[in-house]
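Lab notebook, entry 319. We have the chain sequence and a SMILES string for S-adenosylmethionine, and the next step in the workflow is to get a structural model of the bound complex before anyone spends time on docking refinements. Request logged below.

Task: model protein plus S-adenosylmethionine, output C-alpha cells.
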Amino acid sequence: MTMIDGTHGVPARADVHSSWLGPASYWQPAHIVTSAWLEHAPFGFWLFDELRPRSVVELGTHFGFSFFVFAEAARRLGLASELFALDSWEGDDQAGFYEEDVYEAVRTIAERDYPESTHLLRGYFSESRHAIADDSVDVLHIDGRHGYEDAREDYQEWRSTVRDGGVILFHDIAEHGEGFGVWRLWDELAPRHPSFAFAHGHGLGVLGVGETRSRGLAALFDANEATAREIRSTYSRLGAVVTRQAQLEAMPAEVDSLHALVDSLRHEVERTRDIVSQREAVIDDFRTSTSWKVTRPLRAVSSLLGRGRREAARPGDPR
Ligand SMILES: C[S@@+](CC[C@H](N)C(=O)[O-])C[C@H]1O[C@@H](n2cnc3c(N)ncnc32)[C@H](O)[C@@H]1O
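Result returned:
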C-alpha cells in the first residue's frame, strides 16, 4: 500500500519505520580512527543507501572517519560515486595542529581500499572550490572549523555546489562551548529548509536542498515530535554501538602500552635494587675497614656523652 506524503508529495510506504531505518543503519565502519563523528556512522550508511549519491564533498576530513564511512557505504552499495575529501591536513586551532603522518595515513587507506572513488584535495577549502561544479553534489558535509563565521563562510561558498534534492550535513550543531557557533548557523537555516537535527555525537544537522525526492528523507523532514524522538533515540543507540566498537578496537593497543609500562616499572625496580645493594656493599666494606675499627672507642664515648646530655635536658627530672 502506498500513501501520499502531504508536505513533499512523496509516496510513502505504510511501514514508516523502514523509511528512516534500514539494513545499512546496522553496518559497522571498516575504518575506526580517532573522531568526534563516530556516532553518526549508522546514519551516514543509511543516508547513502537512501540517496545513492553520485558526488560527495567533505569539507574537513582529518583522520578520515566520516569520509571512510561514506566511501565504505558507496563500496558496499556498489555505487559509482565520486568522493572528494578537502582538508589542508595541517589541522586548526580547534581540531589541533598535526603532522604529515595524518595525511599519509588517510592517503594509504584511500589508495588501498577506495582507489576508484576517492579524491583527496589538499589545501584550503576555497582553493579547491573551482574543482567542484555548481549543482553537481548530492551530499556536502561541512565539518571544518566550527565558529559561526567559519561555518557560515563554508556554507555560503559551497551551497551552490549542491544539486536539487541533495543534502548538506553540518557536524557539531549541538556544541555550545567557546569557539563553537555551528548551532547558531543551524538555528538560522533549519526553519527555512527541510531539515532534521540529531543531538547525539556533538550534533548533526541534515539540511535538504530544493525538492526532497527521497521517501526516507521526507519521512525524516516531516517527522512529528514523537517520530522525531524515536529516530533520534534509535540512531543515538546505534551510534553508541560504534563508540563501543572503537573502545574495543583500542583495547589491544592500551593493553600493549600497559605491558610496556609494567616492563619499564619492573626495570626501574631492578635498577633501584642494584643501587641499594651496591651502597650496602660500600657500607659493609667501610664497617670492616681498619679506620672504622680504630675509631670505635671514639664513637662509644660520643654516644655516652649524647645520652648524658639528653638525660640532663629532660624537664622535671630530679637533680
Ligand atoms: C573536525 S576536523 C574533521 C573531522 C572529520 N570529518 C572526522 O570524521 O573526524 C576539521 C578538519 O578541517 C580542516 N580545516 C579546517 N578549516 C579548513 C580550511 N579552511 N581549509 C582546509 N582545511 C580546513 C582541519 O585541518 C581539520 O583536519
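Notes for the group: The pocket of S-adenosylmethionine is lined by residues 35-37, 60-63, 65-66, 87-88, 90-92, 95, 124-125, 143-145 (CB under 6 Å). Worth checking against the assay data. Confidence is low (pLDDT under 50) at residues 1-14.
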